[in-house]
Amino acid sequence: MFKNALFYISSFIIEREVIRTSSKHNRELKVVLNNGKLVLNSGKANYSFGNLHKVFQKVFSRTQLAKKNIKSALLLGFGTGSVAHILRNELKMNCPITGVELDSEVIKLAHQYFKLASIPDCKIYEQDAQEYIQSTKEKYDLIVVDVFHEIEVPDELLQASFIEHLKNRLTAAGLVYFNFVVDSSNQRNQLTQLKQVFSQQFINNKTYQLLECNYVLVGFKE
Predict the structure, then answer these.
(1) Which end of the chain has fewer CB atoms < 10 Å from its terminal CB, N or C?
(2) pLDDT > 90 in the chain, percent
(3) What's residue 153's pLDDT?
(4) CA-closest candidate to residue 142, choices 97, 88, 202, 195
(5) Are the CB atoms for 57 and 35 separated by under 8 Å?
(6) May I ask the CATH architecture of the domain 46-220?
(7) What's the pLDDT score for residue 49?
């Protein structure tokens, strides 16, 4: 896959670009080799793997997700499958995984560079996250929300109606993780409002700060 051994070795010193492309949803998408590992970045943000991978590794560890009886998982904002790889390969979960990703180019890159086909029992829908959660009748033990345009969560996903839909699509003992980035005063205010909405929908909830600007809100159905 890589041009030569020097290309791989040099990635431990400087980030190396593998491919650059674009789509109608993302003006820039770059697959890069960083410290010997492939990462997908958009113009301003890490899209899949990289620091995003670390964020979910940390929050899953802190909430002891591996000890929970997860029989079905929904990943909104699938990207190239970072969270799916954590569930399957690191936490050894064998549950069916449903992924929802709006950008067909990202799905293409997931197949080409991030071994999407190697994840068993994983179904991907090319669809808007809000549309999916409003239309599906399925219920899930685990829902992960990781939907961004660059570093902004779409406004419609911050509304009480969307959070209520998430809750309604959880099983009785289900839980939801909602990734959020704070890089401005406006995003700080949005986070405060989102935490209030979570508190209204989930009596049992907690917010974790991961890395410098990443926050993950966790809500438990029970």
Answers:
(1) N
(2) 79
(3) 94
(4) 97
(5) no
(6) 3-Layer(aba) Sandwich (3.40)
(7) 83
